[in-house]
């Protein structure tokens, strides 16, 4: 058997398809491509698939991840070509890596996500939001109230923001996204607007997820890199 991690992009109109439908989409594509995927045991066998982190409906991405196990294959290139040949426009497999059998699922080891954020063309603010956001992010604390399954929880968003860089009309930002700590771009912008005494609508924001990262230790240093990393230039050191 072979444990594989697939990296795929999600762009165009298919961004309005929710996570459960994306799962069904992949199940059908795997069957159409004739991939010898591993099925669960029991009375109702199903393909064993595990996605890193769900992508919000309406968001696009160049770095989504799916883990799966195949019983046999000729090469990862054949798996990628086979899937892409049956994919509809909007979802594309961009890389596949074979994993060690002991490798944990991407879902449980994700640490952060990088986003490219800007306002939709017909929803641009009537103020210099880039300048105001720069000032907002420089504050010592960024309090917010986050809704959880058990109710509401007061948090400080500041330590959840690992890195950021502004362009003329956009923000590239690296936010924590793990099983323990996650900061969504919409929550950050909601409280940014509140700090200005303004109301925010999540549909105004154009959210593109650039990639998902996991963390590594290197001596006393901690760095993160994408689940399928191209080279060491993609490493981002977050302490040490």
Q: Could you explain how this protein is built, in words?
A:
This protein is of the alpha+beta class and 240 residues long. The chain contains 5 helices and 12 strands. Strands 1, 2, 3, 4, 5, 8, 9, 10, 11 and 12 form a 10-stranded mixed sheet that branches. Strands 6-7 form a two-stranded antiparallel sheet. A hairpin with a 2-residue loop joins strand 10 and strand 11.
Structural class per helix/strand content?
alpha+beta
Helices and strands, in N-to-C order? EHEEHEHEHEEEEHEEE
Largest sheet: 10 strands, mixed
The helix count comes to 5
Overall spatial form: globular
Given as residue ranges, the uncertain stretches (5+ residues, pLDDT < 50) are none
**Mean of residue pLDDT values:** 92
Distance from first to last alpha carbon: 39 Å
Strand portion: 35-45%
How would the blueprint of this fold be written?
Elements (H helix, E strand, L loop, with lengths): L1 E9 L8 H14 L16 E3 L8 E11 L5 H11 L4 E9 L6 H4 E10 L9 H9 L5 E6 L2 E6 L4 E6 L4 E6 L8 H11 L9 E14 L2 E6 L9 E4 L1
Parallel strand pairs: 3-10
Antiparallel strand pairs: 1-3, 1-4, 2-3, 5-9, 5-10, 6-7, 8-9, 10-11, 11-12
């Amino acid at each position: 058997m072979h444990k594989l991690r697939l990296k795929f992009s999600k762009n165009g109109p298919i961004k309005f398809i929710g996570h459960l439908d994306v799962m069904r989409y992949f199940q059908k594509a795997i069957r159409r491509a004739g991939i010898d995927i591993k099925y669960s045991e029991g009375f109702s066998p199903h393909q064993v698939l595990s996605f890193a982190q769900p992508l919000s409906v309406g968001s696009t991405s160049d770095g989504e991840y799916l883990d799966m196990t195949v019983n046999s294959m000729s090469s990862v290139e054949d798996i990628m070509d086979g899937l892409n040949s049956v994919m509809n426009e909007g979802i594309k497999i961009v890389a596949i890596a074979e994993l060690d059998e002991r490798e944990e699922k991407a879902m449980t080891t994700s640490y952060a996500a990088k986003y490219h954020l800007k306002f939709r063309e017909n929803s641009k603010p009537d103020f210099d939001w880039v300048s105001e956001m720069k000032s907002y992010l420089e504050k010592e604390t960024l309090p917010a109230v986050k809704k959880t399954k058990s109710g509401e929880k007061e948090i400080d968003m500041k330590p959840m923001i690992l890195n950021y860089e502004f362009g003329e009309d956009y923000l590239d930002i690296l936010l924590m996204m793990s099983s323990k700590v996650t900061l969504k771009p919409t929550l950050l912008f909601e409280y940014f607007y509140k700090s200005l005494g303004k109301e925010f609508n999540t549909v105004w924001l154009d959210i593109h997820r650039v990639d998902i990262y996991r963390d590594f230790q290197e001596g006393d240093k901690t760095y993160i890199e994408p689940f399928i990393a191209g080279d060491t230039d993609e490493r981002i050191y977050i302490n040490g």
